[in-house]
Write a structure and sequence with these properties.
The structure is a single chain. The protein has seven helices and no strands. The protein has 130 residues and is mainly alpha-helical. It has two domains: 1-30; 33-127, no CATH class. It binds heme C. The site of heme C has 19 residues, from α2, α5 and α7.
Length: 130
């Protein structure tokens, strides 16, 4: 009887721990922003202004803005594209992440690499539904 009680308690503790673990994993895998939101915030230019991406490419962004762009691209990589191959999506989003990191680190040529990685039409053709 006593052993049964301990066994039941152990099972309860274990499943509680497992439950928490599962929630954490799900939370981490879920992107903080969806693709549309990232496009609007990072790529679409507000009226009369440069987009966040353009400000970073032109060297006009603050450190905060560069880090914000990096976060958008890291979250972009966690999203699944509406169409096209997942490997190609990974290659493109990885290029955006690493070029933005290089810009933050002040590597020469990084802004140009970022501009090349962020070719709107190329990626839309491969991954955006009409
Ligand atoms: C790495 C791939 C990729 C790159 C680079 C990219 N886009 Fe997108 N963009 C997408 C995808 C995928 C969608 C479709 C999202 C959906 O329908 O869920 C999209 C959608 C959009 C939308 C529509 C968002 C909405 O609210 O429906 C805009 C605006 C946009 N992109 C602007 C741009 C601009 C401007 C650039 C270049 C500076 C650019 N994008 C570069 C992948 C990309």
């Amino acid at each position: 009887m006593r052993t049964t009680k301990y066994f039941v308690m152990a099972v309860m503790v274990l499943s509680l721990a497992a439950g928490l673990g599962v929630f954490q994993a799900a939370d981490e895998a879920k992107p903080k922003y969806d693709i549309e939101e990232i496009m609007q915030k990072a790529h679409k230019a507000p009226k009369g202004k440069a987009s966040l991406l353009q400000q970073v490419v032109k060297g006009k962004a603050s450190e905060e803005q560069k880090k914000q762009l990096l976060e958008y691209y890291q979250e972009l990589a966690k999203n699944k594209p509406p169409k096209g191959s997942v490997n190609d999506w990974k290659r493109r989003t990885d290029a955006l992440v690493s070029a933005t990191k290089d810009v933050i680190a002040g590597k020469p040529g990084a802004a140009k690499a970022l501009q090349n990685a962020a070719k709107c039409g190329d990626c839309h053709k491969a991954h955006k539904e009409d």
